[in-house]
Write a structure and sequence with these properties.
It is built from seven helices and ten strands. The protein is of the alpha/beta class. The protein has a single domain, classed as Rossmann fold, CATH 3.40.50. The protein starts with 5 loop residues before the first strand and ends in an 11-residue tail after the last helix. Bound molecules: NADP nicotinamide-adenine-dinucleotide phosphate.
Length: 199
């Protein structure tokens, strides 16, 4: 049993599929929430489970949102009761509005849920292959409750990246991290990473 409990990965596309398989390969308990679990091949050879979103949320301690941002509100409305008290980890980006995150939406629709944001500022190609010259890149994250930092850090580490704390309650800075990276993606390609160096 993973120390961070079970992670539900909602959405089995580029982001959800890549992250969920990486979490499972690192030894974490993962259940994908898919609209069509019977047809899904998201788990691959990892041993992760694939279930309906309802079943996945019910089983989870942490719920990673990896669906189109336009669908987040409907997801929260449908699963509000089941999400109560859980950690909602938001990887979604709501384009083209200036605010990309769903922190306010989560707070309004599931007031007892805890919110964290990560995996929004770099491309899925980086989550699939997180090293450059043999060294891992960094990934920014934020939590509102410091007690949730170890869970988010464990999931970032599971992907092979190094967690970089952006401060408590700063989903705005996680949006900014993406905006700052976009010109580099356009110049150097989507698998462009970030590395913090220090003594
Ligand atoms: N692509 C990237 O590199 C990247 C990077 C950072 C953040 N993001 C964000 O991550 C989220 C997912 O992006 P993606 O590239 O993984 O998209 P994607 O490949 O299209 O996958 C989205 C998944 O969400 C589920 N889904 C689709 N429509 C849905 C709906 N109407 N309601 C509920 N679930 C639905 C589907 O899984 P099922 O069919 O199994 O339900 C689908 O596979 C987006 O918010 C995006 O902004 C993407």
């Amino acid at each position: 049993m993973s120390e961070i409990g079970t992670t539900a990965v909602i959405g089995t596309g580029n982001i959800g599929g890549t992250l969920g398989r990486a979490f499972a390969r690192a030894g974490h308990a993962v259940v994908f929430g898919s609209r069509n679990p019977a047809a899904s091949e998201a788990a691959g050879d990892t041993g992760a489970k694939v279930a309906t979103p309802e079943e996945a949320v019910a089983a989870a301690d942490t719920v990673l949102l990896a669906i189109p941002a336009d669908d987040v509100q409907a997801f929260l409305r449908t699963h509000a009761d089941a999400l109560a008290g859980k950690l909602v980890l938001d990887a979604t980006n709501r384009f083209p509005l200036p605010v990309l995150h769903s922190a306010d939406l989560v707070r309004a629709m599931v007031p007892t849920a805890r919110y964290a944001r990560a995996f929004n500022s770099q491309a899925w190609e980086t989550f699939a292959d997180p090293r450059w010259d043999g060294e891992p890149g960094h990934l920014f994250y934020t939590v509102f409750d410091a007690a949730d930092a170890p869970t988010v850090e464990a999931l970032i580490s599971a992907v092979g990246l190094v967690p970089a704390f952006a401060g408590l309650g700063r989903p705005d800075l996680l949006d900014a991290a993406l905006f700052l990276m976009v010109p580099a993606y356009e110049t150097h390609g989507r698998r462009t990473g970030l590395r913090l160096v220090h003594d």
